[in-house]
Amino acid sequence: MKSKRENIAEYILYLWQIEDYLRAFPQQAETNAELHDFAEIMHREGVFTAGHTSLATNALAEMEQLHDELLDQEAQYRAMAIRLRPSLTLFKSKTDRPAMSDIEASLTLLYKIMLLRLQHKTVSQETALVQQQATQLLRALSRYYYDNQTAV
């Protein structure tokens, strides 16, 4: 399993991918102990058909909290977030959850792009640029998260 501590953004995307995989192929939970345990968590939390596990939502909440702190404390990070904000606002307006946080929107954007690429669909240059900016922001946020976890 991906390590939350090493890269929290990748960890969340991994959890979302496993959730979707188990929804699409529930029988696979019987072939792998780790998948079986994760499917049990999904059933217990009532998210087997939709939604995210508490593992994912709690990690997202941690990212959002750190994001808010960094916006106040780190000028370079704040500049990255400000550059990305108009694109995220446009992206969120096209979803069924326009009030989602910028961090959730960034992760959702990256996840949707990953799904498009798995389907061999092209991504516009504009979308690729937003992907690059979102990746940069999430990479910085994950690095701050890692540094904060290793300092403890």
Commentary on this structure:
The protein has about 150 residues and is mainly alpha-helical. It has one domain. It contains 6 helices and no strands. The protein is globular. About 25% of the residues are buried.
Q: Ends: how far apart?
A: 22 Å
Q: Helical residue percent?
A: over 70%
The number of helices is 6
The tally of beta strands, per DSSP, is 0
What does the average pLDDT come to? 95
Q: Supply the number of structural domains.
A: 1
Poorly predicted ranges:
none
Strand content: under 5%
Instruction: Report the sheet with the most strands, covering strand number, pairing sense and barrel closure.
Output: none
Topology as H/E string? Answer: HHHHHH
Q: What global shape is seen?
A: globular
